[in-house]
From TrEMBL:
HAMAP family: QueH (MF_02089). This is Epoxyqueuosine reductase QueH. Its EC number is 1.17.99.6. The lineage of its organism: Bacteria, Pseudomonadati, Pseudomonadota, Betaproteobacteria, Burkholderiales. Pfam families: QueH (PF02677). It comes from Orrella marina.
């Protein structure tokens, strides 16, 4: 573990308590351990109605709960209101990843995170989504800041979790914990598009629930976060 590279972090503007939107255990593992190491008070907010099918959703959530319990971190299990998600995404089904559909998806998840934070005494929200190299950090930060701006005295913390060895530790922790390794971003459209891409390469379709970090020789972040 490259702990020596992990910097001690401080919340911006003297903030006290974070609600961490988590998309999955592999992405949030390093974020959680970094905040624990810096003595930052936080809880996890799991709100990801984008994840399809429900079997995949449950695996990702249970992996995250397992890791939160290991560290004694509070875990808020929010709604799986996928009908609302599909309503919001309507018309954007064929957008590419990192396009407009993803902005709407992030907006929806962060709006709920911000509301919960505001109602329950958190002064800061942030997300594990940005640690994945598959994601556009500016797009995520924009959604996070828009959501936080709805409430007085709430901010979105735009810390770059990939830096100072964060990306490497994300893989190390995932392998150490043998986290489930998702192979697509999360929604039914990302599953469709990833399978199309695999078919074009002559590869097998994604099989849900079979791939775990550390049970093979992969050292790279081959999956993608939600
Ligand atoms: S590709 Fe990922 S971020 Fe984009 S809409 Fe689907 S689940 Fe959301």
């Amino acid at each position: 573990m490259t702990d020596s590279l992990r910097p001690s972090m401080k919340l911006p503007e003297g903030r006290k308590k974070v609600l961490l939107h988590s998309c999955c255990a592999p992405c949030s593992g390093e974020v959680m351990e970094a905040m624990v190491a810096s003595g930052i008070e936080f809880d996890i907010f799991f709100y990801n109605p984008n994840i399809h099918p429900v079997k995949e959703y449950e695996i990702r959530k249970q992996e995250n709960i397992r890791f939160a319990e290991q560290h004694g971190i509070g875990f808020i299990d929010a709604d799986y209101d996928m009908d609302n998600w599909f309503d919001r995404i309507k018309g954007l089904e064929n957008e590419p990843e990192r396009g407009e559909r993803c902005t709407v998806c992030f907006d929806m998840r962060f709006e709920r995170t911000a509301l919960y934070a505001y109602e329950h005494g958190y002064d800061t929200i942030t997300s594990s989504l940005g640690i994945s190299r598959w994601k556009d950090m500016n797009q995520i930060n924009g959604s996070g800041e828009r959501a936080a701006a709805r409430y007085e005295d709430l901010i979105y913390w735009t810390y770059n979790w990939r830096k100072h060895g964060g990306s490497q530790r994300m893989i190390e922790i995932s392998k150490r914990e043998q986290f489930y390794q998702q192979e697509y971003c999360g929604c039914v459209y990302s599953l469709r598009d990833t399978n199309r891409h695999r078919r074009a390469q002559g590869r097998e379709r994604i099989k849900i629930g079979v791939k775990y970090y550390g049970r093979e020789e992969s050292l790279t972040d081959t999956g993608s976060s939600t």
